[in-house]
Design a protein that fits this description.
The protein is built from 20 helices and 15 strands. The chain has three domains: about 5-155, 3-Layer(aba) Sandwich (Rossmann fold); about 180-370, Aldolase class I (TIM Barrel), CATH 3.20.20.70; about 425-490, no CATH class. Helix 1 (about 25-30) links the parallel strand 1 and strand 2 (about 40). Helices cover about 40% and strands about 15% of the residues. It has helices at about 25-30, 50-55, 75-90, 100-105, 105-110, 125-135, 210-215, 220-235, 250-260, 275-280, 285-290, 305-310, 320-335, 350-365, 385-390, 400-405, 405-415, 425-440, 450-470, 475-485; strands at about 5-10, 40, 65-70, 95, 115-120, 145-150, 155, 190-195, 195-200, 215-220, 240-245, 270-275, 295-300, 335-345, 370-375. Helix 1 packs across helix 6 (about 125-135). By secondary structure, the protein is α/β, with parallel strands linked by helices. The mean pLDDT is about 90. The structure holds cobalamin (B12).
């Protein structure tokens, strides 16, 4: 078989909102340039994905449909699209890749809709696979690939190489309609994303990234990243960039040099980092970042309890006091800390949640503009105490793709589930009530349409609850939320 065309498909993920640039497909597409003809089809931009993909199919046997899949809505869209296409074109080769298939490759390959799975960062693995298919070989020996053996059993090879993004070709932005991806956010009117590094050097055992890269971190040079900012600015008048790197701030020298290089562009930016790393940064690096437009840093504070941090493998490197120290420091510099917490951790979800809620009050006292993102603990299939403990309490991942797209599991992956065996419904609602009160008393700065008058109103109405810790059933705040939507959408922090 010679591969005549590759269709890279991004299932719908942003219903009703300006979509996020399909970065995974731009990254994969970049290595296909001048090697294989390809197109990017974004389900966020069209109504009928099946028709759009069919338009691109040359012949059933020679076209490869490669789909990026995140858990949740993307999976929900990928499934019917692939089903319909497989029915009409039974010989079409369908490859799935991205966070969901990388972790749950067995469920994917149990379905006849998926022929092959690329696990982890896919540039090299996918290119090797295409070369194999193009040469008439099955490719089943390629590291990073999962496949079905002749008896129909799913098999996976070892993890593939984590590419060095500095050696990879630049993304070809002309492959997508960039104007349609410029979002109006609290950072800027024309915000877009970029990924300047792959992986993360840490092994926190609740994080999906560990499965993808096994502790590797590889980055582009400061010069290259600054070059992309310049291109964004010059070609599309981009004024803000979300750096979606799992851990942008690993290398202080790189960040400081990057900051110096982009300062004159006057762009705003946002990135994710670790508390321990940033505490080690010098004051001059922190100031350089701020002066270069860094508005907010997303930080995994995870918990207010040292024991829980220990269980998450964050212990030793992170203690609640360190979170407080950094929150105060960033406050002095005018960079907003955005802290994410994972509540309801085993073995004692009640005590864990109580501890963290109290801790959040301390954080807010020190630096009231700190953004707080609350997640419920959601297991990932990784060896470790946390996953073992939830399995002991009856937790098991679904086995088929159809089960994964049932309403309970869709809620689960979006961290909204009420049905986790180790967290009772009453705890879940207590956390929701706390969140409602907290967000009213400290309205988020990320919602530009919350006027000062509305902020004052929210604060006035919620003050007694916050001060007396009377969080339960805040019906008046539910009503205000209904009118003003004062809680930031969970996805804005990804
Ligand atoms: C951008 C993003 C989004 C965007 C979607 C972008 C899109 N595709 O349309 C939005 C904001 C919509 C989003 C939503 C959600 N997201 Co999201 N998102 C991210 C984020 C921040 C960056 C992903 C990215 O673009 N990276 C840059 C590219 C270059 O890398 P990549 O995506 O990893 O792609 C590489 C490989 O995965 C692989 N690959 C991926 N696709 C393909 C396809 C092919 C054909 C091949 C060969 C290879 C390949 O190769 C690529 C190049 O190396 C990641 C966290 C992160 N830092 O990675 C979370 C992340 C993927 N999201 C996550 C989650 C849970 C969600 C949500 C389900 C939940 C939530 N709380 O909002 C929602 C809902 C999803 C939906 N609506 O469908 C989790 C997944 C966790 C897990 N257990 O799997 C992550 C890891 C965040 C986290 N740490 O929890 N998300």
């Amino acid at each position: 078989m010679t591969v005549s065309k590759v269709v890279l498909f991004n299932p719908r993920s942003s219903a009703g909102r300006t979509p996020v640039l399909p970065m995974s497909l731009l990254a994969v597409g970049a290595v296909l340039e001048s090697r294989y003809p390809y197109v990017i089809v974004d389900g966020n931009l069209i109504d009928d994905a099946v028709a759009a993909i069919e338009d691109e199919i040359d012949t059933d046997v020679k076209t490869i449909l490669a789909v990026t899949v995140m858990p949740g809505p993307q999976l929900e869209h990928a499934l019917p699209v692939c089903r319909e296409l497989k029915e009409r074109h039974p010989k079409l080769t369908v490859v799935w890749a991205g966070y969901f298939p990388s972790q749950h490759w067995e469920s994917c390959l149990k379905s006849p809709l998926v022929d092959l799975v690329v696990r982890g960062h896919g540039e090299q693995v996918f290119l090797e696979l295409l070369d194999a298919l193009d040469g008439g070989r099955p490719g089943d020996e390629i590291a990073g690939l999962a496949w079905r053996d002749p008896s129909g059993e799913p098999r996976s090879n070892d993890r593939g190489p984590v590419p060095r993004p500095d050696e990879l070709p630049e993304w070809n932005f002309d492959r997508v309609p960039m104007e349609r991806y410029l979002r109006d956010t609290f950072l800027g009117r024309r915000t877009v994303g970029y990924a300047s590094s792959y992986g993360c050097p840490y092994f926190c055992n609740f994080c999906a990234v560990v499965n993808l890269v096994g502790g590797k971190w590889r980055a582009q040079s400061a010069r290259r990243v600054a070059g992309v900012f310049e291109t964004y600015h010059r070609r599309w008048r981009v004024d803000a960039v979300e750096l979606v790197d799992n851990n942008f701030f690993v290398d202080e020298d790189r960040v400081a040099e990057f900051s110096d290089r982009i300062r004159s562009l006057g762009m705003a930016w946002w990135g994710e980092g670790r508390i321990d790393t940033l505490l080690r940064y010098s004051d001059s690096s922190l100031r350089a970042m701020r002066d270069a437009g860094l508005k907010m840093i997303f930080l995994g504070a995870e918990s207010g309890s040292s024991e829980t941090l220990e269980l998450m493998d964050k212990g030793g490197r992170l203690a609640p006091e360190m979170t407080l120290e950094l929150v105060e420091k960033l406050g002095g510099l005018g960079i907003i800390p955005e802290l994410s917490f994972v509540l309801g951790n085993p073995p004692d979800p009640e005590a864990d949640a109580r501890n963290t809620m109290d801790f959040i009050r301390r954080v807010k006292k020190l630096n009231p503009v700190t953004e707080i993102i609350l997640y419920m603990y959601t297991p990932v299939p990784l060896a470790g105490d946390l996953y073992d403990q939830v399995r002991a309490r009856g937790f098991a991942f679904p086995e088929t793709l159809e089960d994964w797209t049932g309403p309970d599991w869709l809620d689960f992956v979006q961290r909204r589930s009420d049905a986790m065996p180790w967290v009772g419904r009453s705890l879940r609602s207590r956390i929701r009530h706390f969140e409602r009160v907290l967000n009213a008393y400290y309205p988020t700065s990320t919602m530009t349409r919350l006027t000062p008058a509305r902020r004052r109103l929210l604060r006035a109405v919620s003050a007694w609850r916050y001060h007396t810790r009377a969080y339960a059933w805040p019906l008046e705040l539910d009503l205000l939320h209904h009118v003003m939507r004062y809680q930031r959408p969970e996805t804005s922090g990804f």
